[in-house]
Amino acid sequence: MKCLLLVDIQNGFCSGGNLAVPAGEDIVPVVNRLIAEGKYDLVVASQDWHPADHGSFASQHPGRQPFETGMLGGKPQMLWPDHCVQGTHDAAFHPGLSLAGIDHVQRKGENPEVDSYSAFRDNDQTALTGLSDYLVRAGVDRLDICGLATDYCVKATALDARDMMPTVAVRFVADASRGIDPSGVAAAIAEMSAAGVTITNSDTVLAEARAE
Fold it and tell me: Is residue 60 part of a domain?
C-alpha cells in the first residue's frame, strides 16, 4: 500500500500568507503531478489548524516579536506570526492544489499549549494526532512525504514516520517541497537521511510509477 503525505500546503505558507515559505506555491504543480500520476493507493494531507490564541504566536507573548525564541509549555519555542488560524483564508489549502485527489485530511496544531510541526504528534511527543494508526490500519508500507516547510513540519513529519512506523519505507520528495532557510534545509535533509529516510525527487517517483 503506497501513500503520499502532503504536509501543510496552505495559503499561510505560500506567497502572501502570514508565514510564507519562499516560492512555496511553486511545489503545487509538482504535487499535482504526483497525485495524478504517482499511482498512490492513498493521498493524505496535513493541515495546520491553530486557534486564534495559540501559544506559538508572538502576539500571545507581550513585548515579543515574531521569530524570537520564547517559551511554551516550559520549553523553548520559536515565536511565529499568527498563521493558519482555524476557518481563515490563511489556513485553507492552496487553491491550485488538487483537492479532489486527497483521501484524508489530518488537522494539527489545535492545542494552544503546544506546537505541532509533525503530522503525527505534538512537539512534546505526547499527544498523537491519530495519523499513524490510520496509516497502519490502511496497510501502508510505503510513504512518500513532501510539502511545506522542509526544515520544520516536513522534517518533523518524516522523522516521526520513521520512529513511529519503523516497518514503513519513508521517502522525502525534495522537489515537491520548499524550506525557509537554505542552511536549515540542508541540515534537515541530512538529518532525515541519517534517520533512514530516502531522499528522492518527483521524476524518480513518476518513473517508478510508470514502470509498475
Answer: no
Please tell me the total count of domains within the chain: 1
Q: Specify the CATH number for the domain of residue 89.
A: 3.40.50.850
Catalytic pick among 82, 108, 115, 160: 108
Residue 44: band (very low, low, confident or very high) from pLDDT cuts 50, 70, 90: very high
Range of the domain at 90: 2-49+84-211
Active site residue 75: no
**Pseudo-torsion of CA 116, 120, 121, 127, nearest 10°?**
130
- On whether residue 76 sits in a domain, the answer given is no
1-38 pLDDT, tens digit per residue, is 999 999 999 999 999 999 999 999 999 999 999 999 99
**Other CB atoms within 10 Å distance of the CB of residue 116:** 25
> Which of 212, 158, 197, 176 lies closest to 39, judged by CA?
212
The Cα–Cα gap between 89 and 188 comes to 29
14 is catalytic: no
Q: What is the pLDDT of residues 48-73, one digit of tens each?
A: 999 999 999 999 999 999 999 999 98
39 part of the active site: no
